[in-house]
Amino acid sequence: MNPMILIIDDDVAVRASLSLLLKQAGYATAQAANPAEALQAAATLRPQLMLLDMNFSMETTGEDGLQLLGQLKQLYPQVPVILITGWGSITLAVEGIKGGAADFITKPWNNDHLLQSVKTALELAQPTTEVPAGKLTRKQLNDQYDFSMLVGEDPGLLQVLRNVGQISATDASVLIEGESGTGKELIAEAIHKNSHRRKAPFVKVNLGGISASLFESEMFGHRRGAFTDAKTDRAGRFEMANKGTIFLDEIGELDMASQVKLLRVLQDRTYEVLGDSRSRNLDIRVVCATNRNLQEMVAEGKFREDLYYRINLITVKLPALRERNQDIPLLVQHFVNNLKKTYHKQELQVSNKALKWLREQPLPGNIRELKNLVERTVLVSGKSLLEVEDFQNQLQGGLRKLEEKALPSVGAMTLEELEASMIKKSMAYYHNNVSKVAKALGVSRGALYRRLEKFNIPYDAQE
Ligand SMILES: Nc1ncnc2c1ncn2[C@@H]1O[C@H](COP(=O)(O)OP(=O)(O)OP(=O)(O)O)[C@@H](O)[C@H]1O
Ligand SMILES: [Mg+2]
Predict the structure, then answer these.
(1) What is the tens place of the pLDDT at every residue in 392-404?
(2) What residue segments make up the domains of the chain, in order of their start?
């Protein structure tokens, strides 16, 4: 049977057009014009989803909407409610999300986006039929999904994989949180690969590397002549990702002005190319990642709360490697196997003692640090059987080298001055190539841009 959707709105024209849209998409619909009708219809018809207009009272304070939402969620906690609000009342929508709404749509709505949101909410609300997802073993996960690139059997990771498997099929936006090097990008790719969009593009954008002034032209594209430097037409990242998945990495680095611009696209699923006023539709799945605490940033006023709720319909939190250290031997084995092929060195091996020792290392850089450590050790030691000392040398190598070289004497320089002068030196060495400098200094481009601005070091924004 087709899912039944209850439309709650005092405006008969809105109800009629929503009803027509939903019916054409194959849903059954019912309508309610006020809270009393809504409660009655919910009780008798048992809809699978409800669309609730937040401004449906005459006073349009939204209080009635929030109150009704509260009642509906209390009576039918399993039934998703999607809110419809005006652009001016996004704060209301945010309140609604906190009150249990599944999603919110702003008026005037984009039909495709609304249908996508309905479909996603229904899929997420549906209990999975096969093996209860909470119990899938690593082998069952492998049978059901493509997780070949993700090594690990730790219960914490398996829980993440079960979650990722379940949400991949939907179009829900996902926020991936985790420390640096925990595998956020790999998870984003896995979500795409296991979705119905797998044959369409996966476009990665490092928001930390895009300056505020270039945000629009980079993301939305520009027409030739739109501004002085626009010599040719250029496609934006959203256009490249159309029909596929866009991966917005380091979303916590986005400045406030760009946050509004991003919110608008995610909200309306339409955008305009610079220098061209025609508005274009977007059909994309949005996956974001950050190693910062966005909730804290929201509390501090550094990240828009409405954008936060827009991007994290679902949150996937990746465990730090130290929290799943039983996976360290598996990961080392995996990296060594890859190196065997790269270096044609079939005899490459790691001693059991070394595997045990590696498990106990703190590795704040997580999987990336472990991978680098294994690669460096294989290269530098040149041995076939790697022992504890071989890894030890590489782990401490970086520090030792630094101490040997002359650092300024204590008190001669503050840490900030030392940092600024190291950055200046690297910028000169790499002729202002920000990517190379970031790599050499071991920071992200976003982190480097922030420091360049902080220390007032000139750089070429075009890069
Ligand atoms: N489960 C895993 N199995 C095998 N390799 C992994 C796994 N997770 C991560 N890696 C590898 O570790 C490295 C870091 O992963 P990734 O780039 O996805 O991390 P990240 O969380 O995006 O890091 P950052 O915050 O620094 O951008 C990559 O080389 C990736 O291939
Ligand atoms: Mg990353």
Answers:
(1) 988 865 554 445 5
(2) 4-125, 133-317, 321-404, 415-454
For residues 43-68, average pLDDT: 81
Rg, C-alpha atoms of the chain: 26
Contact 365, 322 (CB under 8 A): no
State the pTM of this model: 0.77
Surrounding ion ligand 2 within 5 Å at CB are 184-185
Ligand 1 atom closest to the Cα of residue 152 is: 1
For residue 141, which amino acid is it? Answer: L
Domain 321-404 has CATH 1.10.8.60: yes
pLDDT (tens digit per residue) in 253-289: 999 999 999 999 998 888 999 998 899 999 999 999 9
* 133-317 has the same fold as 4-125: yes
- Work out the burial of residue 458: count CB atoms within 10 Å of its CB; fewer than 13 is exposed, 13-18 middle, 19 or more buried: exposed
For domain 415-454, give the CATH number. Answer: 1.10.10
What is the torsional sign of CA 220, 226, 228, 229?
positive
- 4-125: which CATH topology? Rossmann fold (3.40.50)
Write out the two tokens for 83: 């809110």
> From the CB of 181, is ligand 1 less than 6 Å away?
yes
Residues 158, 140: Cα–Cα separation, whole Å: 11
